[in-house]
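Today's session is about reading a structure prediction critically. Students often jump straight to the picture, but the first step is always the sequence itself: look for stretches that repeat, for charged clusters, for runs of hydrophobic residues. Only then move on to the predicted structure, which in these notes is written as discrete structure tokens rather than atom positions. Here is the chain we will use throughout the hour.
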Amino acid sequence: MSNLRAQSISKTYPMGHDCVGVFSNISWEFRAGALTAIQGASGAGKTTLLHVLAGLQKPDLGQISFDGQDIYALPGSGLARMRNQKFGFIFQSYHLLPELTALENAALPSMIAGKPDFAAATTLLERVGLGHRMSHLPGQLSGGEQQRVAIARALACKPEILFADEPTGNLDSHTGGAILSVIRELQQERGLTTVLVTHDSRVAAVADVRLRLEDGELSESVS
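Below is the predicted structure for this chain, in token form.
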């Protein structure tokens, strides 16, 4: 199981002549094999924190370590390779390529890696209940179906860590609950270290570890 650790990370954004702090001096070791939910109000910086943890946005200060490696000390090509091969991503807005079929979207990480694996993508699409929709384009799929494709894509390269940014945020409560169940079931089956951000306490309630990002600080939630 893979180890992810934030060490004294801080992030600010320029605003005119000033800088606005998003979060400051955050340190946390994420439990291997567990689903950790980071909850917070809209605008609290949850997505920014997730992007920093996932190698998508460098912190101003501090380190993100994955299995002892400072990921931002890697060259750009090395970090890109780590994101493609070690990390899986599920986004609120799906981020599917509209010109590719569900199968091609699910297989995209392996295609980018130069080793297309349509068999693995097919198995995952069947696993998430889309075996009958593999040849459909994203525009022909419902929001819930598109998110299922995104889940299959995130897991297609057998990542060691899964990052999910408000994965049910664009869905109605029934569809969102079904998507959350799929994520949780696959996460438990694979013992996959997962970091999920949400504003919804009902989503956070299914996690093994619940954290709250508030006023730029990260702490364990007891509610």
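Discussion point for the tutorial: The mean pLDDT is 92.
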